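[Automated response] Your request has been received and processed.

Submitted sequence:
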Amino acid sequence: MSTTPTSPTPAAFPGGTILGYPRIGRRRELKKAVESFWAGRTDAVDLEVAAGTLRRETARRLVDLGLNPDDGSVPGSFSYYDQVLDVVALLGAVPARFRDLLDDEDGSLELDGYFTVARGRGEDAPLEMTKWFDTNYHYLVPEISETTPVSFADHRIVREYAEAKEAGVTTRPVLVGPVTFLALSKAADEAGEGFHPLDRLDDVVAAYADLLRALAAVGVPWVQLDEPALVTDSLDVPAERLHAAIASAYRTLATGLARETDDDTASEDSAGERPAILVTAPFGGLHEDALALLAATDVDAIAIDLVKGAVPAGSLDGAVPGLEGKTLVAGVIDGHNVWRADLAAKLDVVESLRGLGAGALAVGTSTSLLHVPHDVEDEVFDQQAAGTTLDPRLRDWLAFADQKVGEVATLARALADGRGAVADALAASSAAVASRATAAGVVVPAVRDRAAALTDADFARGPYAERAAAQAARLNLPPLPTTTIGSFPQTPEIRKARAAWTKGELADADYSTAMREEIGRVVALQEELGLDVLVHGEPERNDMVQYFAEQLDGFAVTANGWVQSYGSRCVRPPILWGDVQRPAPITVEWSAYTASLTDKPVKGMLTGPVTILAWSFVRDDQPLGDTANQVGLALRDEIADLEAAGIGIVQVDEPALRELLPLRRADQPAYLDWSVGSFRLATSGVDAATQIHTHLCYSEFGEVIGAIDGLDADVTSVEAARSRMEIVPELADAGYSRGIGPGVYDIHSPRVPSSDEVTELLTLAVKAIDPALVWVNPDCGLKTRRYAEVEPALAHLVAAAREVRAAL
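Generated structure:
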């Protein structure tokens, strides 16, 4: 056995694989273990034991579902919190404010330090958080400078491989690729002018090379490096530089480090320097020349997304040079949505790739399965059973993570043994797709007719100046009015009452009484704190999207369909399967009751159409814009009823506006047109004196400033605390001239900002934009926080507003 940097034949690769798997546990075991550790109820050893158990159970589960335990088919894609933070820990690349957390000898982070970087401590803010490409997952943004320490500091990924091997499964370690890691990073505050994190590419690649050597030393056959930066042109990195970085990185990692082969012509000196390398490009189609770029390197396999993307134009005209020595992994099973695949059609796509000239073809998922729930079989489909959540018809239409693994295994067998070997499975999938297309409720003529009758007037309000004058007269608010985004902490008592009501153990009247008592407490607290515009706190809502989905036709919700949003935060995205309409008012009773308790203005709280789509699994059988307008019309009816009930402010949250933005700039104008249009459709039926708010969070707002303006909301609140008001000068430069509430309190961290810190942030805001436009609010809702944090933080917020107000 010897080695060679290049090989005319591909390294043996599984016929079918997935790019990653949900890591939170089927019943959110990891969430519970991590939060118990944070609360001090358990220690690091307990957490590591729980995580190890979960990893081993996952590996065995994937083998049971059809992945090979011996060839690297099973991805090792575990993370305690976030895959990008894992690379920060791998490299010891923490910001200067957290350097004291690094081990003095090897630069590694203990678990305490790892979570501190994610969550902050005292006056040290955590890493900024933003969306992961076009998903509802949020990652932590690394901060890199010329002096950031970079080395192979953390051997956790090596230990986890050995752990799985001892349990009888050969896993494939998975981590974010070096180029995508740096392309997604931001320059640290101490970085010099003109510095870009990609300037540290050589250092980062050297650390990755050390990692690959360590993995080879313990026998790892394959490693997966994710490079989704190759599918977007929306990063602040020119494509030329990105491509040069890819070529440089993989020249070092794939050519500079030899892999073990059956070729006897190479030197023994470098034997086993690296595992075989799979480079993936999920979330869209590769840049036009990126397939050729990757094929020209000595990586061993390339995975491409053939659900949201396609083979680059022209590639199918002939063989791509370099692919003859590689495996091409066809990502035809959708890792982003929950619909069952038409396996015969997917097999056609895989077979169409033969003309590319790859040394071998394999079947895979388009992305990691991190973005879908674990298992359809965890749901109840009997409509007569207690706790029923899903219509029985949906059983055959859906494929969660476990079902998708089965689909991959079926296609891999078909590729190896022919269609006849899986004829029954192909026929069953085709029948399920046909059944879904013709089911009652998928198309509702009355909904289609109403949408078809819309005119331009349905999407427009009167001039802002007239609205602002009418609203000022009605609301009579002070300068820098204070408010919150909507939700207040969901206490154990609230959750217990809602769970009992859902199970039928608490009568409707008793549940209503419990929720009204909680609303009364929240209103009293806000008045005591001195907030100017009040909310009801949303105690009746389990989730800002699921709550509406449960009361709109065309949606279904799950009992156990948990998906990780960030860190330990998990959500159950609804399933939007049919035409959408509102059968009855949803929020009016709660908002009207709240208004009866106070003389201060009360906001009605709704979730916007784009966010409902972004945070649901949406039907894929019609354009998203058509579905968004159906949701917009349902919300328009709700807003009309709120206005009729005397509610003078209605907030329609769109935190996901940026999340659905296409990764290619050429596709963005069409998206922004229908997404902005659906919001305006929902909000344009009100009187001039009714104030429309919206809320956006954790987005690169600079990319959608035009769309923010286009929403034509009277007041827009945005995340700004972690980025220290970065958005405000951008809005000022763009000529934004309506109300703006830049968040001054980061609610995604348990730390309580001081009055001085909030005053400093608010002062930055009023210096950058007309103070008459500025509102004062947290970054987001308070649902996930505790009252012990919320009450002092809001008190500081109000105090800061009064101090800055007095200085105007």
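Summary generated for your ticket: The first strand starts at residue 2 and ends at 4. Confidence is low (pLDDT under 50) at residues 1-8, 263-271.
If you did not submit this request, please reply to this message.
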